[in-house]
Design brief:
Helix content is about 50%, strand content about 10%. It is mainly alpha-helical and about 120 residues long. Among the domains are: about 5-30, no CATH class; about 50-100. Strand 2 (about 80) and strand 3 form a beta hairpin. Helix 1 (about 5-15) packs antiparallel against helix 2 and helix 3 (about 55-60) packs across helix 4.
Length: about 120
């Protein structure tokens, strides 16, 4: 493997915040063809638990679609797994932070506003 290829892979892996330093070292050693020097293959969880939209909605008394609407509004960030196009869910810490703060009110549409005015 060319050294420039290894440098490019190293830069990409270093830019990914979801990969810890020991994981990065082990990954680069594997790519180079060196044996893994770490004795403990089990990694500790990073503390970022991801929950599905339905579970997040139950915590916030919203439907799964309501959770996706919160993400579209920028209130809540979706979590995407590498190589996937659809989101895996939401970070539990972000959902708990929303619980402690005030949730935005449901957006009103022009149709619902017109209906209220017609009554």
């Amino acid at each position: 493997m060319l050294s420039t290829t290894l440098d490019a892979i190293r830069a990409i892996v270093k830019a990914d915040p979801s990969i810890t330093a020991p994981e990065r070292t082990a990954l680069l050693a594997t790519i180079r063809g060196q044996p893994n020097k770490t004795t403990n293959t089990h990694t500790e969880p990073r503390g970022e638990r991801v929950i599905r939209p339905k579970a997040a909605g139950e915590l916030l008394s919203r439907s799964p679609r309501g959770m996706h609407l919160l993400a579209e509004q920028g209130v809540l960030a979706k979590v995407y797994l590498p190589g996937r196009k659809r989101s895996a869910g939401f970070r539990l810490a972000d959902v708990e932070a929303l619980i402690t703060t005030a949730l935005p009110s449901a957006p009103t549409t022009e149709a619902s506003t017109k209906l209220k005015g017609a009554q």
